[in-house]
Amino acid sequence: MATQPTTPAPQCCLCGNWLQFGWKPLYGYQVCPKCHSDFAWKRAFAHLIDIVAANIILGILVVVIVVIGAVVVAGAGQTSSSDAAAATAMLLFMLLYACIFIAMYAFLLLRDGFHGQSPGKKILGLQVINTVSGIPIRFGDSFKRNLILIVPVLPIVVAVQIFTANGLRLGDEWAQTKVIWLQYADRAPFLSLSGIQAQARARAAAAKAAQPPVTNQPQT
User: How many domains, in total, are found in the chain?
Assistant: First the structure.
């Protein structure tokens, strides 16, 4: 009795392993659970590194403020009353403290604008690109995709999306951006629309070049 040919299970778009044990969606393509989890954890740790970097910057600026405040108090104490010196120092401290928080939030909003890579993404081999052109995003795009993160509670929603959704998070669709894994930058899930079209044209040209030339048969 003839046996029916078995259809092989599809392969992961990234590592190439068979998906007989399940798959997860990533930007509209099927990847194995391990690749999906590894990519999600890279994004999570990149965000953690960015937060640590922002707090380091905050700490350095606080030290600078304390030093400047001490210098101002010492200088004002020599020329005026202690009350005036204290008031001047307090005003300067409040002004600089507000500037520090503005600078920290600006960093968190614009962090992906450095050729599409925040410090964390740079370390972990990630990049944010435009979904249409494939060009690494700049500061305006970074501001648009990260603006949602300053809303309370929404960072938790974003964290859940990274591990459970198809790769896009709140802010990505609005800014037309997506995070790519540079190790697999030439694989389908991480290609932009223009990159997918370029690959399709290249495959069509290769298939056409592989066809044998058509010769006219002599008539008998």
Answer: 1
